Fold this protein.
Amino acid sequence: MKNCSLHSDEQARLEALQLLQLLDTPAEERFDRITRIAKRMFGVPTVLITLVDSDRLWFKSIQGLDVHEAPRSQSLCACAITEELPLIVPNTLTDERFANTPLVTNYPNIRFYAGCALHAPSNHRIGTLCLIDTEPREIIDEDIEILQELASLVEQEFKATALSTIDELTNISNRRGFLQLAQQALSHCRREKQNACLLYFDLDDFKQINDNLGHSFGDKVLKAFAQILSQSFRTSDVFARLGGDEFVVLLTNTTPQEMDTVIARLKRNVDDYNLQHDHSIKYSCGSTTYAGEESIEALLHKADQEMYSHKASKHERGAQTDC
């Protein structure tokens, strides 16, 4: 099959996909309605809403197949997301890019494919709305326009999802999104008997920043700290802005010793930022470890208390930022 090169911003694309929190979730009528309409309008046996993960294709909505995912290396959709315009393949057997791919030579025996890239709210291409037939067929320009219009409906649902779980200012998870992701992560740690650590951050003197420099400048600081968190932690870690100037990170499969290394990396990144700007980001931090039974709410409460104790001790002794 054609080698579909990764995007230059593949990591950001995957982060945008993870933020939507749609992978491995149950079927939803809002998406199934669109694929049913497309199946009826185009008269094809199969319509899919696909999400292109790092190594797999996962189907958020399925009409006409009895599988829920496929290897990314074998999928036409992996190529479709590299193109801004829809990928149209009238006959896969006569197209040298795809003639030998297993999804063509074996089940589901794709002969016709039309895939329109789906964009996350960040504008990264994260999946497709695609039409599949087991027989070759042609598609006219008017049909392609209709496919694009249906794809825009899917993207509207992505935006609605993002509004409920993503912080609009910083573009990382909000409290609701964090609680959903963190609960899933803790359930995995419980099953696999893995360690986890939670960090709770509060920006120091943030009220003075807003009062003295204005709320727009304060927003700039919040976005900068969110970006530093994104750079400092793994994509498998769950981080969020809980509200105001409070941020949180859940590190899964992480020991307290490993957490110390991560905290040191965060501090270096903050120090680098402060050296490059005429204002400084300072923060207080509380931490706690997961022992296998605590709820995410209990971990947040404990880390929050630790953070405020840290903040109070800093005021007493004029300490520098650390955890």
About this structure: The two ends are 50 Å apart (CA to CA). The longest strand covers residues 125-133. The chain has a mean pLDDT of 90. The chain has ten helices and ten strands.
